[in-house]
Amino acid sequence: MRIVELTKDTKDNILENLLKRSPNNYGEYEAVVSDILANVKANKDAAVFEYTLKFDKAAINADNILVTQDEIEEAYSVVEPALIDVIRKALVNIEDYHRKQKQYSWFDSTPQGTILGQKVTPLEWVGVYVPGGKAVYPSSVLMNVVPAVVAGVDHIIMTTPPNKEGKVNPVTLVAAKEAGVKEIYKVGGAQAIAALAYGTESIPKVDKIVGPGNIFVALAKKSVYGHVSIDSIAGPSEILVLADETANPRYVAADLLSQAEHDELASSILVTTSRELAEKVSVEVENFVQVLSRKEIIEKSLNNYGYILVAKDMEEAIAVANEIASEHLEIMTKDPYAVMTKIRNAGAIFLGEYSSEPLGDYFAGPNHILPTNGTAKFFSPLSVDDFIKKSSIISYSREALEPIHKDIEQFAKSEQLTAHANSIAVRFETL
Amino acid sequence: MRIVELTKDTKDNILENLLKRSPNNYGEYEAVVSDILANVKANKDAAVFEYTLKFDKAAINADNILVTQDEIEEAYSVVEPALIDVIRKALVNIEDYHRKQKQYSWFDSTPQGTILGQKVTPLEWVGVYVPGGKAVYPSSVLMNVVPAVVAGVDHIIMTTPPNKEGKVNPVTLVAAKEAGVKEIYKVGGAQAIAALAYGTESIPKVDKIVGPGNIFVALAKKSVYGHVSIDSIAGPSEILVLADETANPRYVAADLLSQAEHDELASSILVTTSRELAEKVSVEVENFVQVLSRKEIIEKSLNNYGYILVAKDMEEAIAVANEIASEHLEIMTKDPYAVMTKIRNAGAIFLGEYSSEPLGDYFAGPNHILPTNGTAKFFSPLSVDDFIKKSSIISYSREALEPIHKDIEQFAKSEQLTAHANSIAVRFETL
């Protein structure tokens, strides 16, 4: 793995290189996606079935689009019982953590008769997109569905592309059922996003669409944003390890590789104050790569977006970590908590040498759907917050309004909004 | 004002009509906006100055783009002192309310050495857009800036278009200064959004852009979403009044008109169980319209998007209110709190006959930047939440990881992610 001394120039180059992975740079597919959206909006089910035949080679119609109880039972009979057990154990942790995120309605009152507050209401309809293809990620199903369940969403539906026999992967079905999904529709791609955003004869319109997908899915989600809500656009996975001379090079190397294996756009970065550690990690990485099953992907991803950066001190190392704003940040230093207090930007922060990133992907409880590609500067992990919304509550008595009514009228008039002023004045007019 | 009996058909027609106002339907301007964004991204200041000359007829350069201390002082000398007083009184209420929205970092630990938590961090850079033109809304300046200040944002900068003498409206400057803005840049339109999203020599790149604007500003914000964060896309203003036979028709009429005066796309809807009230309100509206200064706008907006709907009972009235998901919802019924419990979708809910909507626009404290055009089904009022983000905290000891390490490895292997499994296994290998 390449070792680079951290300077202003190397930093700027790396930041620019990482941004190349942004889904904002795939404009060439926008026209295709926009056609699919328009077609599904106009022709509903007919368009959905046509695209599913074209892209997934599956003959789906109004009678077989919904996964049946029989198909769910069949899925349970083929998935390894030990895996179902692990899914259930992870689910307990994920539910526990997300329950702590719940926000509650509140109000505050004064004896003059004012009540101000904030009412928290779960979303009514949520659509979860689950990608198809050879890679199946039951962990992502849990991470998308659990916060919606904890928030109290009334209707959580799922869409996922069928294979050419019209079937959905059994592990996806088991994970969905365990997490609490009631309805699963066999449709994928931009056509699934369009169906969820506009509704069809078979698929209900939802208020929010969540879940990762390919570039067509990402562009479709971005395009329907505003008409419905979406989670943030998922980019390629990332890890940044902040380490000093006390870190175990073997652990650091293994953790860097755990992200590099995701895909060729994934990024793995070590920022360290120790050149000795840098060199040892580089060697460990080379050794591990030879024995790992996804060697080809890992090599490409490390060549494209893998770096070992040597910083002159921890302050400089922390500064670059904040600028990169990595999806996953591991801190393996003498005092990881002290370093953590200086971290502004990261999706999830892992502290100490036993907090390896896959622990968070699968088991600890916090969500593994995290802001990528620098968006941890302003976005948060998927959470219960994503499945609620708030309404302000305002209640004034005559006694409370009377002493301020002229102030409000003056403010409104200063903005030339005389009907606003009138709506206050009319309450105090003497007839 | 037209009176319509509420049926499935009238409801569907009204919902369809209201959606015509969506900023999703202005695709014709997308090419213009996308050119402006690309030009500012490539040519930075030079492009910004060129557009400001072209659109605002103002000669702005690197030396005069920033509002000076002298200009602020001049603004204070020309704004009516009584208005400054009202701004300060409103500010106290707005700050009080928003402080109650603050969220805090939390963690939870187990004696096995696990710590899980959520770290709350304010955004570092926020850009507030303030429209120029004849209409000046100091109240919107306060509503955009205060939640960012309360959240603890480090750098809050503002952009607003200059007039052709290169000056910014003094009321805007006073409101910005009072609210706590430190830097104000004289640039407007899509070019301002581009400058905030990408940064120029003069204007810093921000993490999030908030504030209303015209269609060019709205499209530019939507386009840069993902590269930076934005608040929700503002649509035309709306009010829905839910009233029974106990409501004062004069108050209802005045409140409907307070939204109708905003612009021709604004929507004012009364849903009532009382035909007698419907008729009285209609008469009161006609009387008020004659004496209000914005008569022309009001008449157009009522013709386009104004309705008095007569429902057969309160249950039906509430159901349609939830479907419309209005920005502002007033409840004027015998027991407004009982009705409120059944409201799922509204930006702000005003209870009782003294809680007129302009009280919320100017003075009560809750934010007046609210989800419009049905988006209250999934979006929330602008709040302190918009100016913070969260990071998950995960810390495990060897003791805590040991009993579950094989579970995690199995889960990872089931997803064919062997490097993930390896990063856990390496911690327990016997050398």
From TrEMBL, chains A, B:
The UniProt GO MF terms for this protein read: histidinol dehydrogenase activity; NAD binding; zinc ion binding
SUPFAM superfamilies, alphabetized? ALDH-like
Q: Which UniProt keywords apply?
A: Amino-acid biosynthesis, Histidine biosynthesis, Metal-binding, NAD, Oxidoreductase, Zinc
Q: What is the free-text note on the cofactor?
A: Binds 1 zinc ion per subunit.
Output the Pfam families linked to this UniProt entry.
Histidinol_dh (PF00815)
* Pathway membership, UniProt: Amino-acid biosynthesis; L-histidine biosynthesis; L-histidine from 5-phospho-alpha-D-ribose 1-diphosphate: step 9/9
Q: What is the lineage of its organism?
A: Bacteria, Bacillati, Bacillota, Clostridia, Lachnospirales
The active site of this protein is located at: E327, H328
Instruction: Tell me the Gene Ontology biological-process terms attached to this UniProt entry.
Output: L-histidine biosynthetic process
Q: What's the protein name?
A: Histidinol dehydrogenase
Q: What is its EC number?
A: 1.1.1.23
Biological role: Catalyzes the sequential NAD-dependent oxidations of L-histidinol to L-histidinaldehyde and then to L-histidine.
Residues binding substrate: S237, Q259, H262, H328, D361, E415, H420
Q: Can you tell me which residues bind Zn(2+)? A: Q259, H262, D361, H420
According to its UniProt record, which reaction does this protein catalyse? Answer: L-histidinol + 2 NAD(+) + H2O = L-histidine + 2 NADH + 3 H(+)
